[in-house]
Description:
Strand content: 25-35%
Helix content: under 10%
Strand order of the largest sheet: 1-4-6-8-10-12-14-16-18-19
Distance between the termini: 53 Å
Amino acid sequence: MVSGSGATDGTVNGRGNIIIGYNEDIFPFLGGSLPASKITGSHNLIVGKGANNSSFDAIVAGLDNVSDAEYASISGGNRNQATGNFSSISGGQRNEASGPRSSIIGIENNLASVEYSSVSDGSNYAAAGLRSTVGGGFGRSVVGEFDWRAGSLFETQ
């Protein structure tokens, strides 16, 4: 597949993508809060409907997911956003991986907003500290560097 620029490292131009799905409004059940799918990035694999991608080398699967960063991936779920370079979301809904190299393996409403932060297996989490992680339970957050929470445990336990 050729990007149209003549080189794989050319400017992002919406070419060189494989798209399996439909060009439908994102979140139509909420009044169409985002316009029809925009695949303006290059060298992406998009599977599902309502996906938006404006960068390159992303893999996006699921329903109404948005990848807006280099090498970001969403592997399933719906209404997720991977906006940090090298970020990833594996399943769930309404999750956002906005920190570079952040990751979410989660159920819903999770945020990994700082570099190398991660959230796994829960809902309503926020990992907002550098290299921080949250896992298990409900409604937990960390803001300190190298901080962690697991279920009902704190770092000192």
